[in-house]
Write a structure and sequence with these properties.
Length: about 300
């Protein structure tokens, strides 16, 4: 591209040399973004990151109610048990990007001391009304913490939202005691779904998703910050299926067809019937991709657990 020399990484300021996808249209604002590879940071980045990112988080973002809330709570409970989150000598958990607290509620019930970290003060005020036993702080306040922390730090699909991950991980390393566990789930940029759907892959999601990782680069990234990876997982069938459905819906929405996506998003009887038929049809199409994702280890999400070693 003619202007590529002028396009730089928002964190290291090095010049981008490789473009992955773009322009990608953000559906709410109609603004366009590109995805580039940073050879210095070793992962893909969204360009250009808006100065006022809060404008790209509508009130409906992670605002789950009714059937959708019940289904997601159940899925979070399954992951809580399956990933053995309750295991740990120090019963303290910090969840960065805690959202509606589906994980923190489980930790709280098991007797853990819970801290939820979010970007928006108004959202924290709302969470505090319904979660009296959980301590909430803004990300800005968390970044000013001087006291060493221990136990677990959880970021469930949150790291991709952090504007400067190197700076952030350096800080986590600085304030974490030895043996503190760091647990991440992020979209997998090496997913077969990206190859299948291209710029319509729902997990690219610019500009909310600023950084895009794969297992290899994330391991290197963590080890440079004094965290040793002790577990990685790539099999999350519910997330994978939702990504598959969401990507098809994203494509249709960009073509002007407003889709209810799934039953849990539907409004009214017609939407619900249409959603059942639509989701069932996609489910049948998805079956061979489900097995391909398992065999190729290229499903849409990555989970890594790392421990602070020095």
């Amino acid at each position: 591209m003619k202007n590529e020399k002028k396009i730089r990484c928002n964190e290291c300021k090095k010049i981008f040399k490789k473009k992955l996808y773009g322009p990608i249209t953000e559906l709410n604002t109609k603004k366009k973004f590109n995805i580039y590879y940073c050879s210095f940071c070793k992962f893909y980045k969204t360009h250009k990151v808006p100065k006022k990112l809060d404008l790209f988080y509508p009130n409906t973002y992670r605002n789950f109610k009714g059937l959708k809330e019940l289904v997601l709570k159940f899925l979070y409970l399954l992951n809580f048990v399956r990933l053995n989150f309750n295991k740990g000598d120090v019963k303290k958990i910090y969840e960065i990007g805690c959202g509606p607290c589906f994980f923190l509620d489980q930790f709280n019930q098991k007797g853990w001391k819970c801290t939820g970290v979010e970007r928006n003060k108004q959202y924290i005020k709302k969470l505090s009304k319904y979660n009296k036993k959980i301590n909430f702080i803004t990300i800005d306040k968390f970044m000013k913490t001087k006291k060493k922390i221990e136990g677990k730090i959880l970021m469930w699909h949150s790291l991709e939202h952090i504007e400067k991950p190197h700076k952030f991980l350096n800080y986590l390393s600085k304030i974490s005691k030895i043996n503190t566990e760091l647990m991440f789930a992020v979209p997998n940029i090496n997913s077969y779904q990206l190859k299948l759907f291209g710029k319509y892959w729902i997990h690219l999601d610019p500009p909310r998703h600023i950084n895009h990782f794969n297992i290899k680069t994330l391991k290197i990234f963590l080890e440079k910050k004094s965290f040793k990876v002790i577990k990685n997982q790539n099999f999350f069938p519910a997330l994978d299926f939702m990504g598959f459905v969401g990507s098809i819906t994203c494509y249709l929405n960009t073509k002007g067809l407003k889709m209810p996506v799934t039953v849990i998003n539907s409004k009214g009887l017609f939407d619900m019937i249409f959603s059942i038929v639509f989701t069932t049809a996609i489910g049948i199409v998805y079956i061979p991709f489900f097995f391909y994702g398992i065999i190729s280890k290229s499903n849409s999400s990555i989970f890594l657990k790392a421990k602070k070693v020095k």
